């Protein structure tokens, strides 16, 4: 079956794809204003409130809407100023002073002050806010008192005048600047209040280069240029239209027709076509491999509360077979850190070993005889996967692998928002597909949200395995405070071995995306620290319209958009 799936994926690769729209222009030409950028995703977002939104698609959109104190540098190795003109870190690494720009405005016209940064951070970390990564900020002095309701504010975040913000730490934290560059810490308009409110997500308001225009959940969001943005002349685009629930094969045809300007969610067959096309030679680029995908096992729900049972699952999987289905973008993986993350270890981690898996099933109390087919786990399980994604194909292969050790399950495919909501709710889902794309290039971004005890919550838990290990928690605490990068990476290597041995995850594969954009879209470079960094691109309208028959479209009407998004609609 695996071979037939791989062949089916590649069938028709000789069918030509349309060439790029637009003509190469002068690379030194100054940016011009105008045009709406149109992009799409096969998923959609549940919320655009930076305090709680933490999936990859929402994160891309948040960077359009919200500005932060600082941002990642273009090479992903450092930081550049954003709302803060500069900052100073004390010698003992326990105090950071940020000096804010003067005259920066929120989308509602109100000036951004240091008090707004403090209010927004407290809003995100408030105990009534289901922030999935509040533990990222736990070393801020007073954090525990605040989240446990013993204090009404974060004592370690101090306002010293309208334009000076001080953050004090209880102990050194090597990740502080990285987590302050995330949308979670972005200042939001005062209309958002000091406490999380669900209504804010329908009218998000920040200080980013684009302001909210309209949103039809599950269909599209439109953002228009914020004329009051603090960087003069930027952004260049009139607006951005982000369509949701657009199947990958539909995206390809919209891209070829010029109804999408940039694309990254290519199916394997279309990816092969574009890579083989002479017309696209030298255009597009691979993203760094920043994502890892897995099968998670909820350690609070039987039978996955049994360590031998979990280890049997991990040992029964032939990861190379999964990668055969999508050989361009998927690579077999047996460790947690993907190749683009510091500390990645190319040596084997979890290994396929059928004999070992059968021994572990016996140890777990569910012996299975592969000759007679007798024994194994006595009940059929349910595996949740994300619909319209590779997860479903992978799950079908996993069914074969796990049947060899007497574990049978049915697949329940669900949309992305439903998947996030259910799998992050305690004692709800036993096992299913999981994964993580780096928010910042550091091992802590994988281990703390996914495997630390403090990441467990009743709702919005990123630790979907609900895995607890005090030894791991202590190791991660030590790594966060360690100033030496070499020593930190060694500690995370120990943490990785510990998690792999306990097997709350069966690691499956790493994934990378190939991005394409038409030549008339200028100024775009793939950012090593995040996806879809399109905010300051510009459209060469002359190059765009130079193609005979090419269409330039303003934002589509609601009726046109419905036709565009509907699977099988005309294109």
Kindly list the characteristics that best describe this protein.
alpha+beta, D-Maltodextrin-Binding Protein, domain 2, Dipeptide-binding Protein, domain 1, Dipeptide-binding Protein, domain 3, 3 domains, six-stranded mixed beta sheet, four-stranded mixed beta sheet, 17 helices, 23 strands, about 20% strand, globular, disordered N terminus
Order of neighbouring strands in the sheet with most strands:
14-20-13-19-17-18
CATH first level of the largest domain: which class? Alpha Beta
Radius of gyration: 24 Å
| Overall outline | globular
Total count of strands = 23
> What is the CATH topology assignment of the largest domain?
Dipeptide-binding Protein, domain 3
Fraction in beta strands: 15-25%
CATH architectural arrangement of the largest domain: Roll
Question: Could you give a short description of this structure?
Answer:
The protein has 571 residues and is α+β, with helices and mostly antiparallel strands. The protein contains 17 helices and 23 strands.
Helix-strand layout with pairing:
Elements: H1 2-10, E1 36-40, H2 56-65, E2 70-72, E3 79-81, E4 84-89, E5 95-100, H3 114-125, H4 143-147, E6 157-159, E7 164-168, H5 176-180, E8 210-216, E9 220-225, E10 239-243, H6 248-256, E11 262-263, H7 268-276, E12 285-286, E13 291-297, H8 307-315, H9 319-325, E14 330-332, H10 354-363, E15 368-369, E16 374-375, E17 381-386, H11 390-403, E18 409-414, H12 416-423, E19 431-437, H13 444-451, H14 470-481, H15 485-502, E20 505-511, E21 514-517, E22 521-522, E23 538-539, H16 541-545, H17 558-565
Parallel strand pairs: 1-10, 17-18, 17-19
Antiparallel strand pairs: 2-3, 4-5, 5-7, 6-7, 8-9, 9-10, 11-21, 12-21, 13-19, 13-20, 14-20, 15-16, 22-23
Helix pairs in contact: 1-9, 8-10, 13-14, 14-15
